[in-house]
Each structure stands twice: as structure tokens, then as C-alpha cells.
Amino acid sequence: MNDTASSYSSILIAVSYQLNIYFGSFLLVAGNIGCMGNIILFRSPTLRARAYSIYLFWEAVSDFLYFNFVLMTRVLQRGFRIPILTRYDVLCKLRVFLTDWSNQVSFSFFAFATIDRLLSTQRSNKYRQWSNRADLALKICLICAFVWLLVFGHRLILYSATKGACIPLPGFYAYFDAYNEIFFKAICPPTVMIILAYLLIQNVRGVSQRQIAPTSNGTPANLTQRSALQLMDSRLTLMLMLQSFVVLITYIPFATQLMYSNITQYCPKSTLRNAQESVFAELTHLLSYTFFASSFYVSIITNVGFRRQIKKFFKKS
């Protein structure tokens, strides 16, 4: 019986490594292609002056850093078992800092792009006047980056590569950091996305009703012909909505695993159970990168205007 459990444990440990090598590498490649696509798309002459483009452009820049440092070091350390984080103190500090900082910066930019979209379609001019303000969007991006630096900057000081692991300062700080990460990285993103998804759905219903009006004989008709840019803006709502659902699907398992591991970290567990939890942890952590990797592809699939912008870029090149 023990030999069987030991055999299963060995298989599951190998699965954990393989998940990081193959699934992690796939996300790394797909994410980098997506980041470059978003940078090209949201810096195009047609879109660069739009406030949501500024948010989504800087989200793509943050995602690029997230993939090429955070995910890449994960693949090397947890997949290929190259001990770069446990050997080099500077890389340990930078990695744990950027894990949370770039994650929250990207989510914040996405949330503000969604809020900008919501404000732009409100009936009240009081709310609409706060939408599509490029100067305000740039300021918000800078403020977000600085605020999250203040929130997670302690990791640059209080983490170190010690005893073959990249770990926080033991004692009170270790508890504080663990629950700080649970709140900001596991609880906040799905909660915010649920609220934004609900508001987007309500917004789509309201806009659809306002775009249709009865004609003289009582039949509905479209009120205005919309420009290509307006059509792109309207399709953006669908893209943001789908991305919100991607967050919910991928981040709820991640949040569950993160809370479970912190609550049960001092409970006695068998070798087999530890191996099972390791596979689940690796899978949910890798799935959490899906939101950042899928942004460009969702944009291209849902928005014909965005596809045209990408085609124009490559025709000019």
C-alpha cells in the first residue's frame, strides 16, 4: 500500500514539473505574441488617442514584464529545476515583488479601461465628461503604478534567498505577507470583475434600448449611422465582458487554492496528499496567467475593427 502511494506521489511530482514545462512554455509564447499584438494595436494612429487604448497599451507593457520575468522564472525554476531564484538574492526579491506588482497593475489598467467604457455610454453628461480623457488616463496609470509599488515594495526588502528557498522574513511578516497576497491577488480581482461584468451587462442592455426608437408607423429603427471608430468602441464592450469572464473562470480556482494552502500549511499531510495538492497548485497558478495571455486573442476574435488595424500595420511593414 505504501509502495503504491509512493509510486503515485512520484508520478504526481513529475506531472507538476511537466505542467510548468509544457503548459508554462505555451503560455509564455502565446502571452508574448499577445502582448506584442496589443502594443501594436493600441498604439495604432486610429486608437492611440482613446483613453481605453492608453490603459490597455500600458496593460500590455505590464503583461510583457509579467511574462518575461515572472512566468519565465517559474518555468525555469519549477519546470526545468534551474535554481535561479533560490541561488540569487536579487532575482528572488525582484520576482516576488513583480509577481504581485505587475499582476495588480495589469488588473488595475484593465479595470479602468472598463470603467472608461462604462462612463462613455452613460446618459448623464456629468458621467460622460469623465470618459475618454487621455490626459487623465496617463495620470491614472502613473498613480496606479506608484500605489502598487507602495503596497508591495516591502517584498524588495523583506524577502531573501535563504536555505534553498525564496522566503519572507519569518514571524509576523510572513503571516502579513501571505494574507496580504490572498486579499489583493486572490480575492480582489474576481470580486472587482464580478462587479464590472454585471455593470457591463446592464450597460449593454441600456445602450441597446436607447439605440432603437419607434418610427412614425411604430416600428423600431436605428437612430444613427455609426462610424468605424464608434463600431470598434461598441465591440470593445463585448471584449471587456469576455475578459471579465475569463478572470472569473481562471482566478476563482487560484483564489481557492491560495486560501486553502495558507489555512492548511501547518496541518499534517501524507506524501501522497502533498503531491496531489502540488499538482493542483501548479495547475491553478498557471491558469491564472490565462487572463493576461488571452487578451489580444479575445480582442481580435470579437472586434473586426481591431483586426483591420493589425492588417494595416503588417501591410505598411
TrEMBL record:
TM region positions: 20-42, 54-76, 96-115, 136-162, 182-201, 236-254, 286-306
Residue ranges of domain G-protein coupled receptors family 1 profile in the record: 31-302
InterPro entries linked: GPCR_Rhodpsn_7TM (IPR017452)
GO molecular function: G protein-coupled receptor activity
Source organism superkingdom: Eukaryota
Membrane topology: Multi-pass membrane protein
Compartments where located: Membrane
Name listed for the protein in its UniProt record: G-protein coupled receptors family 1 profile domain-containing protein
The organism of origin for this protein: Rotaria socialis
